[in-house]
Amino acid sequence: MARLRFLRSWLLVGLGFAVGSLYVTLWGHSSALAQGGGAAPPTTTDVQHLKDITPPMSHPMVDVGFNVTNLYFAGQKKNWPLANYYLGETRNRIRWETYLNPGPKGTDGNPVDMKSTFDGIDNGSLTQLKNAIAAKDSKQFNDSYKHLLEDCYSCHKAANRPYLRPQIPSEVAQTIINADPNASWPQ
Description:
- The chain is mostly helical.
- It has helices at 2-34, 44-53, 59-76, 80-100, 114-123, 125-135, 138-158.
- It has a domain at 80-102 and 114-160.
- It is extended, with a radius of gyration of 29 Å.
């Protein structure tokens, strides 16, 4: 019987210790938050600074042009892993553009749903290009690439930018990357 009282006493002491520790921890945490432990809200100056250093909405499309040009030359050299890389980069930059500029004004003055437009291109000519790369099929690649440029121009026209007329590239955009799949240097 004395042993049972002893165990019960220790159990109550342990439970009290646990409850007391929890209370002290929570009290200390709330005091730290009350004293400014959280981040200060941005000021008007902070917001203006961010606006000043943010690249223009057209910046992702410059990257798209760069990547889609290199995609073309990688496909011409039959460097299918490199072509697949540039295809993925092209997709990522177009997604970025649709996030930054989801509704530019169209020819009728109303916003164009860029996400839906990109989804159509992604499920159309970009998927055809991915399949051509996977099949290592140069003819299918060239046909799909031309279809991609036609889709790009349709999007440019819908976004009231018909003066942005893509073409089959005549020069590599990135000359430091060797598109030759049999390149042996550097090792």
